[in-house]
Amino acid sequence: MSLMSLDDALVRLLAGADAYLQTVPHAARVPASVPLSDALGRVLATDIASSMSVPSVENSAMDGYALRAADVVAGGPGLAISQRVAAGQVPTPLTPGTVARIFTGAQLPEGADTVVMQEDVRLVDGLACFDAVPQAGAHVRGIGCDIMEGSVILKAGDRLGPAHIALAASTGLDRLPVWPRVRVATFSTGDELVMPGEPLVPGKIYNSNRFLLRGLLAGLDVLHTDLGIVEDSLDATREVLRRAAADHDLIVTTGGVSVGEEDHVRPAVEAEGRIDLWALAIKPGKPLAFGAIRREDGAEALFIGLPGNPVSSLITFALCVRPVLLRLAGMADVAPVRIASRADFSWPRGDRRREFLRARRNAQGGLDLFSNQLSAVLTSTVWADGIVDNPSGQTIAPGDTVQFIAFSDLLS
Ligand code: AMP
Ligand code: MG
Q1: Taking the model in full, what pTM does it have?
Q2: Which of 116, 122, 344, 370 has its CA 20 to 30 A from that of 207?
Q3: 298 C-beta neighbours (distance < 10 Å), count
Q4: What is the pLDDT of residue 261?
Q5: How many whole angstroms from 392 Cα to the centroid of ligand 1?
């Protein structure tokens, strides 16, 4: 089997996701209007334009005195204080030749054009005295200086974080239109697997991938069904695939996608739908299966089979499953951010496959490398806080610039 580049695989995976979105029943893709308190982590379905300017009136950016800059004489006799305006109060028009005591966020009186902060004002016999003429317009928050009425404040496909929701709230919106959550089913394959808490009888290993997938999916705000461990048999695997396809958008499995006799995922998916088996030119994470499972309604659920090695599972999830999930969720931009960083390590033998090396940022602003980069060494992924994306055949010397992808960007 010839190797496929990650970029080629991504083109196919995303094309599969886009095709899926065209075929799912219309009702499943109707945006839901949710209250702001339920919107965190959801994906916005339409652009949002503001129906108002923020702020909607001029207000003070400081505690101080609102005035007309032209009324101020530096070192002059001072101006009378004609009113006091706290935040939330409505001022009266400013009497010419006077100032208004004003507080942060309070509306500017009509006729005032400037705020002088209280530290720059001397009070002499109840008059506000100034040593300098202020710059007209200083410390005034103009109408719309944050948001202009009619402008687009949030874009379709935005993942709604705390700041997005706060911005919507600042314009008075109490609900937002979001796409439905992507429904994902997972199961682990392998007769060697037992669950933590069970005794480890000879020949068995503990199932770590199950928890890996649970955690990874929890970070992506999907609806996740964990179908547990499926025994290494064709019938059992087919039955679970059929069941999962009925009410999920994507099925993700770990293990069993190599071409060994004990790998039943491939024939099971083939029998229930279609599958392509790829040898990705990446390390770790070579085998990857992509396909679809037929549903009774004639549509299909997408299928991705990840390699069983835990580090390979993590890396292929981050690089291949995450973009598919983001696209299914309604996001256009699904590529993780790569940060040019200084290597504080050497990597004298580049692999012919593109490598994703477990690395960690250090206090000197560079990157350290975990000593054991084997795909069965899960310890590397706990020690590391991201991966170096190293092109095929590339050696690295200390001081070289490498491309770093932080787990915080990749896994949430
Ligand atoms: P496979 O892809 O099924 O050939 O598995 C590759 C390697 O990953 C083998 O050493 C498996 O024992 C191991 N493995 C498979 N599934 C899991 C799992 N759920 N948790 C931990 N290790 C696994
Ligand atoms: Mg196996």
Answers
A1: 0.91
A2: 370
A3: 7
A4: 67
A5: 25
